[in-house]
């Protein structure tokens, strides 16, 4: 049975894709934009600027999503470690109590 | 609305903004274009490009053909040396051919140099009508080779194929010279 992708994984995928596409779009708009005769853009003369700003936005928000994923993962690891530590601590306490009772 | 909430839950505000940015990029790259494929069609095809005529001193109103010499050539559609040029028109466009000499003949040697054309009817060569302009209806009997830039036009209708022959009626009766003379015919198609 397939495991369902978590929200964090979906966000990571979207973030990585956005950074890549944003980089490509910004690069295209800034350095490789060619006005071809006979080709009309849906957004007219603003197409280049919208492409550039869209690319910047995609890079920024994509990076934020990747960062969120990394922070979330680190937090999850830390939480897991803490809960493990607490479990171990409880176990140790219980062991001590049992030892004292047996001595008495 | 519920779907949007669900999407917001999955992606978060940053994810939504990310989607908006990507949508902007996609919209900016949407273009409209139309492609036209053009097929050039040749209406005029040259046939024989040279001929050799023997002209005698004191010839008067003698006839020579290009190609063929003193007599009309035996027509053969698959042999370009048996006609001067070929014109093929389709159903959409007719064609006129301007015929002229690149340089007028020397009038101190020739007393006349009249150029006419013939076309192949399927059984014999028949006289073709010469017009004064590419599209007009005024005709002329011949092109005067002694007059500089004198030209005549052949008008051919749509959906026809015709083979043409150049006929020259000349009189070489002014001088007693045997120096070679050349005449260069120029054909200009006007679709």
Gyration radius over CA of chain A? 27 Å
Shape of chain A: rod-shaped
Taken together, the total number of domains of chain A comes to: 1
CATH class bucket of the largest domain in chain B: Mainly Beta
Structural Rg of chain B: 31 Å
Strand content of chain A: under 5%
Largest interface: A-B, 32 and 23 residues
> Roughly how much helix do the residues of chain A carry, as a percent range?
over 70%
What is the number of independent domains of chain B?
2
CATH architecture of the largest domain in chain B: Sandwich
Would you tell me the overall average pLDDT of chain B?
A: 92
The helical percent of chain B reads 10-25%
Key terms:
heterodimer; A: 104 residues; mainly alpha; 2 helices; B: 191 residues; alpha+beta; Jelly Rolls; 2 domains; 14% helix; 35% strand
Structural description of this entry:
Chain A is mainly α and 104 residues long. Chain A has one domain (7-103). Chain A contains 2 helices and 1 strand; from the N terminus they run αβα. Chain A has helices at residues 7-31, 47-103; one strand at 39-41. Chain A is rod-shaped. Chain B is α+β, with helices and mostly antiparallel strands and 191 residues long. Chain B folds into 2 domains: 1-33; 44-190, Jelly Rolls, CATH 2.60.120. Helices cover 14% and strands 35% of the residues of chain B. Chain B has 1 helix and 13 strands, in the order αβββββββββββββ. Chain B has one helix at residues 2-28; strands spanning 31-33, 44-46, 59-66, 85-88, 95-101, 112-120, 125-127, 130-131, 139-140, 143-144, 151-156, 161-172, 185-190. In chain B, the strands form 3 sheets. In chain B, strands 2, 3, 4, 6, 7, 10 and 12 form a 7-stranded antiparallel beta sheet that branches. The N and C termini of chain B lie far apart (64 Å). The A-B interface holds A 7, 10-11, 14-15, 18, 21-22, 25, 29, 38-43, 47-48, 50-51, 53-58, 60-62, 64-65, 68 and B 9-12, 14-15, 17-25, 27-34.
